[in-house]
Amino acid sequence: MSGAGSTEARLEALTAVELAAARGELPSWSRITPKRREHMARVAALLEEWAGTLRLPEVEVLRWAAAGWLHDALRDEEPGRLVHDVTSEERDLPGPTLHGPAAAARLQGAVHPRVQNAVRYHTIGHPGLDRLGRALYLADFLEPGRPFSVEWRASLRDRMPQEIDPVLLEVLASRLQHLIEQRKPIRPETAAFWSGVVEERQ
Ligand SMILES: [Fe+2]
Ligand SMILES: [Fe+2]
């Protein structure tokens, strides 16, 4: 998408689903526990704060908050039920990562495609993620309620949103390292996300 195109997209009016989500009102098909809702609220609050610091237009600030609220809308649904919502290429994703593509499928036509894309790839990443998609990927990992690496993650939050891509590289390096140490596979989308961000900075 060209720079001019993305500016136009940013100024498009919010959809009803985005407007409701920005207030914390989720679609009726959501499946979340109260604890998950608290996590989603923290992710949405971080995104709203970052979008505000970046001085994005008000409509975009609300859209970033909506993405935070919507990203885990199906996180507590049985993965077996989500398999039927995703594309054939996504069907081999590990169960815990199906909720992104499944929520994106349910959001088709109801949110801006940029929100849909951010939700679809918030767990595994994707080289095509724009600034909103990258911010959601980071807010999900950096939100203050997670119990691990508290000081390191706080130090990365302090660098946001000004240093989004350097922080993204640190988070991606850590997550890839974790997958390797756990002898887990790395999705091609995740590897391409890493390579894309590295190459952009060279
Ligand atoms: Fe998630
Ligand atoms: Fe999440």
Describe this structure in words.
- This protein is mainly α.
- The protein has one domain: Hypothetical protein af1432 (Orthogonal Bundle), CATH 1.10.3210.10.
- 60% of the residues lie in helices and 0% in strands.
- It contains eleven helices and no strands.
- Helix 2 packs across helix 4.
- The longest helix is centred in the N-terminal third of the chain and has 20 residues.
- The radius of gyration is 16 Å and the shape is globular.
- The two termini are 21 Å apart.
- It binds fe (ii) ion (2 copies).
- The site of one fe (ii) ion (FE2) has 5 residues, from helix 3.
Task: Please name the defining characteristics of this protein.
single chain; 202 residues; mainly alpha; Hypothetical protein af1432; 11 helices; 0% strand; globular; disordered N terminus; binds fe (ii) ion
Q: How much is the radius of gyration in Å?
A: 16 Å
Mean residue pLDDT: 94
Strand tally is 0
User: At CATH's second level, what is the architecture?
Assistant: Orthogonal Bundle
Topology:
Blueprint: H1 3-11, H2 16-22, H3 34-53, H4 58-70, H5 79-82, H6 99-106, H7 113-120, H8 131-142, H9 150-158, H10 164-181, H11 188-200
Helix pairs in contact: 2-4, 3-4, 3-8, 4-7, 6-7, 7-8, 8-10, 10-11
The protein binds fe (ii) ion (2 copies).
Summarize this, please?
With 202 residues, this protein is an all-alpha fold. The chain is built from 11 helices and no strands.
